[in-house]
Amino acid sequence: MKVNFKKEKQWWNAKATKEEQDLADEAINRALRWREIERHLEGIKTILDIGAGIGVYSIPLAQRRFSVTHIDFSPSMLKIASQKSKSLNLKNIHFVEGNAVDLSQFPDHSFDLVLNMDGAISFCGSEAEQAIFESCRVTKKKLIITVSNKILMFPVWLASSLEAVKHFTPADYEMLERGEWHQEQFPENAMMTKGLTQNYFGAFKAFLPDELEKILKQAGMRILRIGGLGSLANLCGKETVEQVLRNKVLFEEFLDLCERFDKEILRDGPGTRQRAGLIAIAEPAEKS
Ligand SMILES: C[S@@+](CC[C@H](N)C(=O)[O-])C[C@H]1O[C@@H](n2cnc3c(N)ncnc32)[C@H](O)[C@@H]1O
Q1: How far is the CA of 140 from the centre of ligand 1 (A)?
Q2: Does domain 5-284 have CATH number 3.40.50.150?
Q3: Model confidence, pTM
Q4: Over 90: is that where the pLDDT of 5 sits?
Q5: pLDDT for the residue numbered 24
Q6: Left (φ > 0), alpha (ψ -120 to 50) or beta: where does 257 sit?
Q7: Which residue ranges make up each domain of the chain?
Q8: Which atom of ligand 1 is nearest to the CA of 74?
């Protein structure tokens, strides 16, 4: 179904002040992404952060003197991020209002490192693939993306249907078959989002690792890593995660264990409970 980006933008605007309030295992997901970013900074000067929110990655990267372009389609997110940047007197980050599905303002291969994490792909719904293609097109050296993992999203949809309407719904089958959600697609869908911000859940697409790999290859990328991110945190559950988050030493060791678990035991996911649980790291197959 066609995505109404005006509506999507309003929804994200309403979520801006809560953007960095970490729930459940979100801090684990973020820290695991930081570890991956750190591994790919060699030789990087310019960074494009797509769907960069209120600057959780873009601002620290600018503080480390990379030349950062922070793009987001939500004016409220951009406002908070640019205020933070001003208070830090950063001159090497600039803010652009724009949609991830159309990055035509940037030429091909124009940024050494492109990040598109946790939202500006999966929340493009039926246009998510286009957002991936655009992210790949502007990448010169490395691309890091995270998207929602269908392995987790399908059971989440089932639970939400049962809670809201006490039976499984067409939306569950849509999630199973195409990984997609659009609030206006089926009459019962609106009942599943009662109590969420604006009683709404954005147009959405979840992927399996194989599907994501196929799209990235079609876009001319070579895959360096693809798979679940932080599944161990999800499977250990809330109490273990809370305990780990309270202790710096345990936290670092837990991140090591999460990385080993993703690599050695459950490669595809489900990923963390909160935040996008499927990561892909890629580079253009042909160097420009
Ligand atoms: C959950 S936040 C993630 C922020 C940050 N990238 C991170 O990883 O924590 C998702 C961000 O993506 C933005 N976003 C969603 N869809 C977008 C689109 N089509 N184009 C640009 N930004 C988008 C939202 O406004 C929001 O700021």
Answers
A1: 21
A2: yes
A3: 0.97
A4: yes
A5: 82
A6: alpha
A7: 5-284
A8: 25
